[in-house]
Amino acid sequence: MSLASSYTRWVLNIPKDRKNGFSPFLRLIPFGDNHHIIRSGERGETGAQPHIGEQPCIQVIENEHLHLEAARQLLQSHGGGHRGPELVRQHRVVGGVLCRHQYGEVFWKYKDLAEVYENGRKYGIDTLMVFGWWKGRFDNGYPLYEPDDALGGEAELKKAIKDIQKRGGRVILYTNGVLMDVKSDFYRNYGARAAMIDLDGNPLLDHYQFSNQGTVLRTFGYKTFAQACAGAEEWKQQMLHNGRVKLSMEPDSIFYDQVGGHRCWLCFNKDHKHGSRGDTEPLYRKENFEAVNELLGEEQAVGTENTVDIFDPYMDYHHGCDFGNWYAADVYPQLYLNTFPETIITNRFIHDEREDYRLQLNYALVCGYRFDVSIYRGRVTDMSGVPNYAGHVKRLLEYKEKHRRFFYPSGFAMREFPDMPSGIMMTQYVSGGEQLTLVLNCCREEREFSWDGGEYRIPGWGVLSICGGETEIIEGAE
User: Fold this and answer.
1) What pLDDT does 211 receive?
2) Pairing of strands 253-257, 170-176
3) How far is CA 335 from CA 48, 248, 338, 339, 427, in A?
4) Which of 10, 55, 258, 356 is close enough to 262 for a disulfide, judged by CB 3.0 to 4.6 Å?
5) Per-residue burial over 331-350, b = 16 or more CB atoms within 10 Å of its CB, e = otherwise
6) In which residue ranges of the chain is pLDDT below 50?
């Protein structure tokens, strides 16, 4: 199960045509096992559950509320419910900083990082994730990473990290965990052995480009990457090498982008560990994560992008990139969050004071996400350049601090799933015998609704907080 409910071996199927008698059902397939699926009342070839032939079956759970507790118990039996080190459990906000862009422009040098941190700390930022810190530039030269003399050199990077830590902050160093630049020395030397390939033996390619101010790049694109296969030993060793490089700078955490759910492609390279079963490649992502964890000190952390339960035991936090990490019509993150409240996830893609920034930040609050505040994708300015955005983040953090027993760690627990009016979203948290209910008005206009014997009114894009008989409104639309 992923936050977006769309990963390889956990499948959520909610038919939309309920007029014809279909009800939601959750299909659970334990990761790494070759299990068939059957519905309630079905029989396998042997005429008895729970087997089809010699293969065990997982019965489809059919219930209006999806039997989330049953799902949680089953997923936990396969390693779910991870809790990272204390520095991660108490982490509140990550600010993304892009030092040097793909096309070469320098936005921040290493000596600037402490100032960026200070400009964010007054609004609650406690962690910087540093992108583009290597000589090859962001989205360039992967998977080779070393400090860039143009940004100040290795000693200056280490000094900047120490300076932020002395001020009470944390630093995450980024590398990609999937992509190989087809122009890199690594790809020339090892690409043929490390790449995912299709049925015809061609490498599976991906493209990431930033146009800057020109039209040529915008039209023709740049840059091309091959997708590495986790089942290639060469790639596992490169991931470990890159982990050691990052850890040598003494950050608080290292980060491998995209590995947690990027590109569910099949690899047909039979020389890889998965052999002819390219669909088992995620097993080797898990194996690689286990090896990376062996590199970490007791209070160091590792994170990845995307949120998928099967990787949760090996990741301390997840940089959100799934449908559900930001507000959109038809999102339903409650399924995952209720099943794995311990998972630490950020929101995503709220980079500026766009029209609905308060709705998006309020949505992150009711979901219990940690805030990702990569202003203008980490370029040009920091929190000081978006004072309204920064002020609202501070307001939400003050609210979370007031009710921290529900959020650090998350006590997300939906005790009921009431029918709410369209555009109204409810979440609930518990701590001891207390309950916190948060209700988000996803509409720009004021809305009224009834719940638990009470009548309530919420401003557009605002949040209603109910705890122990006390109500509070968090503002929304300006």
Assistant:
1) 65
2) parallel
3) 31, 39, 6, 6, 11
4) 258
5) bbbbbbbbbbbebbbbbbeb
6) 5-66
